[in-house]
Amino acid sequence: MALLYKADPVRGERWRALFARHAPDIEFRQWPDVGDPAEVRYLLAWEPPSDLATRLPALEVVFATSAGVDQFDLSQLPAGVPLVRMLDPALETGMVEYASFATLWLHRRLYDYVRQQRECQWQAHPLVAAEQRRVGILGLGQLGQAIATRLSGYGFPVSGWSRSPRQLPGITCHAGPDGLKRFLASSDILICVLPLTDATRGILDRDLFALLPAGAALVNIGRGEHLVDDDLLEALASGQLSAAVMDVLSQEPPAPDHPFWQHERILLTPHVAAMTQPESAFPVLLDNLRRHQRGEPMVGRIDRQRGY
Ligand code: NDP
Ligand code: OXD
Question: What is the torsion angle, in degrees rounded to the nearest 10, for the CA atoms of residue 168, residue 107, residue 219 and residue 93?
Fold first, then answer.
């Protein structure tokens, strides 16, 4: 019985060592060394190979190495093969760290101080208390909830938005299209940590920005295709938005002439908010493999109808 791995090859060697040590009954193979395809029962991938059904005829489960699964074309996955996302605790730690850094960067106007330093300008701006800066989180799932809890600990009033109603201690929760307007009106810093689906693609657009308080700031750690790039530029130019921190872009890396590179109110990072780490992810994956082998439900299974 074999598991085929198709993702970052450097981390692949760490996965290989973990399988050899803790699950020697599952042979670890790294793409493109598929071996006998009839022996491959499991795929662990960032992006799946094309023609999955014909290429891997004995496939029983596809595991994503990521929390988001928008890079999988669900219509191309064989009907009986479940897709399971990654619930590595290191992803939660990374996202909480990054969201905290980005929120504090915007809250303390670091974008202004970086520019001022370049211009040899020593000028202080008034401090705003955390209690006066409202943070809104689009997406209150595994990662959004962890971020909400940490940011609330800094003293920011935190609210969140999800598809179905949620209850979280100390967090104001809104849900569905009806709750969106009220949620946005109370978000001075808006953090997007939604999955990318047909319902959320392009959600960060001019209509949404217009519903935020004037001068609000944006953090996108969901997916690049949540954002309409031109609408962000327009909102920054008009002052409707003051600044943005972007970890994800619709094209990664962006073209050399993409206006975000040089924009002094946009901070860009190359999709590094969080990264799956084999050592912390392995127990989670192995638990799911054993669950599958015992015929029990796996944790993190994607609902094909919802798309996440
Ligand atoms: P979850 O599936 O646990 O949570 C998703 C949340 O989004 C849920 O609260 C869900 O609502 C809400 N949601 C989904 N669709 C809608 C909608 N149409 N309207 C309103 N709310 C909606 O996902 P995670 O928290 O684990 O991950 C979120 C995303 O973070 C990933 O999909 C990925 O894109 C991104 N990510 C980015 C990383 C990076 O490095 N930048 C690293 C890891 C993840 P409900 O609660 O009702 O289901
Ligand atoms: C993820 C990611 O979804 O790394 O896990 O973006």
Answer: -60
Secondary structure class of 251 (helix, strand, coil)? coil
Q: Which listed CATH number (3.40.50.720, 3.40.50.2000, 3.40.50.2300, 3.40.50.1820) goes with 2-88+276-294?
A: 3.40.50.720
User: Is 223 annotated as catalytic?
Assistant: yes
Cis peptide before 195 (omega within 30 of 0): no
Q: Which top CATH class is 90-268? A: alpha beta
Instruction: Enter the pTM of the model.
Output: 0.97
Does the beta carbon of 191 lie inside 6 Å of ligand 1? no
User: Is the beta carbon of 145 within 6 A of some atom in ligand 1?
Assistant: no
The predicted-structure confidence for 123-174, as pLDDT tens digits, reads as follows 999 999 999 999 999 999 999 999 999 999 999 999 999 999 999 999 999 9
Task: Please write the tens of the pLDDT for every residue from 41-81.
Answer: 999 999 999 889 899 999 999 999 999 999 999 988 998 99
